[in-house]
Amino acid sequence: MQFIALTSIGIEHLLAEELQQAGLELGKQSVGSVRFNADNIAAQRFCLTTRFATRVMLMIDESEEINDKAALYKFARFQAWQDWFGPTQTFAIEFNGTNTELKNTQFSGLVIKDGIVDYFNDLYEQRPNVDKTDPNIRVIAKLNKNKCALYIDYSGPRLSDRGYRTRQGKAPIREHLAAALVKRSGWLDDISRPLFDPCCGSGTLLIEAACMANNIYPNINKEFAFKRLPSFRKSKFDETIADVKSSQTDNSLWLIGSDFDSKVIDVAKQNAHRADVDSQIKFTVKDANGLNSVAKRAGVILSNLPYGERLGSMAELVSLYRNLGIAFKKHFQDWKLALLGTDDSLFKLLKLAREKRYKFKNGPIDVELNLYDLNARQVSQNEQKTGLNFEGSSAFANRLKKNKQGLKSWLKKEQVNAYRVYDADIPEYNVAVDVYNNSAVIFEYAAPKEIDDVVAQKRLQDVITLTAEQLDIAPEDIAVKVRKKQKGESQYTAMDKQHRYDTIEEFGAKFKVNLFDYLDTGLFLDHRLVRRYIQQNAKDQRFLNLFAYTGSASVHAAFGGAKSVTTIDMSKTYLKWAEDNFALNNLKNPRYRFEQADCLKWLEHAQGQYDLIFLDPPTFSNSKRMKDVFDVQNDHIQLLTWIKKILSPKGTLIFSNNKRGFKMDEVGLIGLGLKAENISDNTLSPDFKRNKQIHNSWLITHG
Predict the structure, then answer these.
(1) What is the pTM assigned to this prediction?
(2) Distance of CA 243 to CAs 40, 48, 153, 218, Å?
(3) Potential cystine with 451: which of 193, 447, 473, 482 (Cβ 3.0-4.6 Å)?
(4) What is the domain partition of the chain in residue ranges?
(5) 231-264 pLDDT per residue, tens
(6) Would 175-219+247-379 and 514-702 be classified into the same CATH topology?
(7) Could you give the C-alpha distances from 408 to 404, 421, 426, 439, 531, in angstroms and in order?
(8) Residues 557-576: tens digit of each pLDDT
(9) Could you tell me the end-to-end alpha-carbon distance of the chain, in angstroms, rounded to an integer?
(10) What is the CATH number of domain 2-153?
């Protein structure tokens, strides 16, 4: 009988080796699969013992002439289905693939179902029922152009789900991939050596290593699909299980795992207990940033290193990889390293020469296993004195230090605790650095096309390191907002959120900020003086805040004694944030209103009168929730036309935008009977004086 074993991309060769070692005859090998020939007993034994397969299917037949519905029906109709199940059993169809005529997999599945049902009706005058959730038999069809193969699901539930892992860490790897990493690491060549995972998470790598070294097979207790086939013989299967169990050994292993998260370590211990290898592994709580020696004998370090699964976490990663590189050379001479990750630029921070690389898929994510040999030559390599990628990065450090010193007296006088300390002062270091209390945000500007991506990445890594040093801020408190193309399907994967909030004080008001979970923090620092103007001029005024974001200007208006405050934004999230800011300042009044609306549409139909209006529209927007594309340069006169209708006779509009090179249409303004005073220079506080293009501001009143 012919079978096909499925696996993840990158593991096919290991799966083929595993099949050969099981004494099975190999067939065609392709991406993610290997065919093989076996009898039932051998195939069942393989399902019990495989480390690398995710699924095993029994081939019924294949045809290269499936070009339409009729051919597909005929192909299914004339198979000997009674060999696999009977008319009283249930079945389900799983169909994959399309061609020019068969374009809908659901329809194609129904065609196969009809063929099977008609077969049993003709033979027994009785038909089996379909059960999509828990069928006795699952039929799989795979179509590629005109070639279609029919299979019976032989193994059942995913073989990589061993059953010991009910909870897992943040960046989990499938058990079959973990087994592949153990194999590729080389540790199995000499299991007397220590195996150490400094970022062990829920312990999957070490648990798989323990099982592989001692011939423990967690799949033994699995409910395999082949048990429901007519060919299954329980007595023979029990003999196979007994034989497999008899091969189990009890080698004394030296397995060490550590992680900074005590809760995750508890999960790892529970997983190891369920796999019956807890006595083989020592788990401890330890931060990988402070690694030191774990064993007197050299061994293998195998780890799935953290990567950017959270927005803004790059500073932590840069610090971790740099610290790991130093620790490896200092404490682990003669060890072998096998490190899994996604970003080659991070691996380069280890300052180690790679021996070999294997590429895999962890779910939808492209990952690579990098192998290193920490021999004497690697360990003794001289690094740059600064430990930076570029000696010239010291110029950035000096500018950061100089700017901070220059702002010191102003910060103290105004009691400012959120400010910009650097803004692309040196063209090669094209970033902005903002400080929020004891944290910082680094925002990378788009680099010119002539700048090499690798060079830009290395400069950013130096910026991160030097920002932490010069501002005395821990890497985990630095958020980095980078331009980064995500690979493969990872671009569709939602980033984890840290839900870390801080409180910023500004001219007596408090604001909630989040530095890590969004591209913006919740407070536009460059509008600090505009907000102060609003506070100073809001007394007894009817205040309107359009495109309000998190409502910071509204809070200042309320602080200044506004008669009423109306806050409008399209985002439900931002309006809730605005309400939180009001609550943070104990501001309660029935005349403080929050309205979710498209500001353009709201303005077009707005009624009533407002004495003080703050209008800070986006430079450009083609939001799905906005009917038309909006451009502030082209559309500002239309905005002001609508504003004029609701601006009270003696009222003031504060109009601001962030478009570089914005030109006010003075003729259009005169035509509306409005006059404008440019106050841009007066709204730039000392920390933004270096970038006069950060925003444009006007006071607009009736002429």
Answers:
(1) 0.81
(2) 16, 11, 24, 15
(3) 447
(4) 2-153, 175-219+247-379, 391-492, 514-702
(5) 999 999 999 999 999 999 999 999 999 999 999 9
(6) yes
(7) 6, 10, 21, 17, 22
(8) 999 999 999 999 999 999 99
(9) 91
(10) 3.30.2130.30
